[in-house]
């Protein structure tokens, strides 16, 4: 049974930084792509970034160079370094493995409908 645990969230001021971590168990992490998503209460979940098994990365347009996704194969973790945070980044952030076989494009890998397993999320609050 796949288990995903997100951590690293918290509060930050505008312009500040946070580093999120996704710990994966129940599957071989390096054999799957991992996506980061975020959701504001009352709104739909949206894709933020994803990293494939070959290391190729994808980013949503709103990232604008502020976020960096990386993978630690030995630790079965995927991190999301978040810099220059803005209030609109406030959300619960989730990670999920890309278990479906599909054409890997920025559209598909950042589409939450393509994912089925989720962690409980980690809250990010950006406010002065």
Distance between the termini: 40 Å
Radius of gyration: 13 Å
Strand percentage:
35-45%
Biggest sheet statistics? 6 strands, mixed
Give the % helix: under 10%
Strand order of the largest sheet: 2-10-9-4-5-6
Shape: globular
Distinct helical segment count: 1
Mean pLDDT: 92
User: Helices and strands: which structural class?
Assistant: mainly beta
Low-confidence stretches: none
How many β strands by DSSP? 10
Order of helices and strands: EEEEEEEEEHE
Notable traits:
4-stranded antiparallel sheet, 128 residues, mainly beta, globular, 6-stranded mixed sheet, single chain, 1 helix
Question: What does this entry look like structurally?
Answer:
The chain has 1 helix and 10 strands, in the order βββββββββαβ. With 128 residues, the protein is mostly beta strands. The strands form 2 sheets. A 6-stranded mixed sheet has the order 2-10-9-4-5-6, with no helix packed on it. Strands 1-3-8-7 form a 4-stranded antiparallel sheet, with no helix packed on it. The mean pLDDT is 92.
What's the arrangement of secondary structure elements?
Elements: E1 3-7, E2 10-12, E3 18-25, E4 33-39, E5 46-51, E6 57-59, E7 67-72, E8 77-82, E9 91-98, H1 106-109, E10 122-126
Parallel strand pairs: 2-10
Antiparallel strand pairs: 1-3, 3-8, 4-5, 4-9, 5-6, 7-8, 9-10
Provide a short characterization of the protein structure.
The chain has one helix and ten strands. With 128 residues, the protein is mostly beta strands.
